[in-house]
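Dear colleague,

Thank you for sharing your sequence with our group. We've completed the structure prediction you requested, and as agreed, I am returning the results in plain text so they can be pasted directly into your records. Please verify that the sequence below matches your submission; if there's any discrepancy, let me know and we will rerun it promptly.
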Amino acid sequence: MEAQLQTDLRYPVGKYEIKPYSPELKEKWLRDIQFLPTDLEMVLLNLDEYQLDTPYREGGWSVKQLVHHVADSHMNAYTRFKLALTEDNPTIKPYDEKGWATLDDVYAVPVNVSITLLHALHQRWHAAIRNLSEERFDRTVYHPGNKIKMSLWQLLGMYAWHGRHHVAHITALRNRNNW
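Please find the predicted structure tokens below.
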């Protein structure tokens, strides 16, 4: 039972699954990209410093770390999309997410700075990809850490899921603690 509870806390919206292209799914995922900053901002409303420093699960990152992580991750995602749209199967740069989540800026900078960044970033990102054809979503990047080629379609689904995933972490924490 403990293992099941741990799994639920780590993956509150389930694990990411690659799905075939469909215009309906494209619109859903694009809305996820477009509205993530607002969704994240809303789930943070009225949280105090103690709550922001609370891990979303035992052994997990704090809410503050999650918010800054989403900004870090999605800055990388935006760059990956732009590279794939302008180069032929570019090799992307992996980064140490855990290391980034413990750097000084994560503790020193208020979460609203990352929320503001996400609003601007997602506006640009959404504008860059909203009118892409199915063929353009077939463009790829090469991930050397995982040694795989990934299409923009796969990346769109993964980052749409990623945002929902972390908003759900914070929502579940708030619900468990009656915040």
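Summary note from our side: The mean pLDDT is 95.

Kind regards,
the structure core
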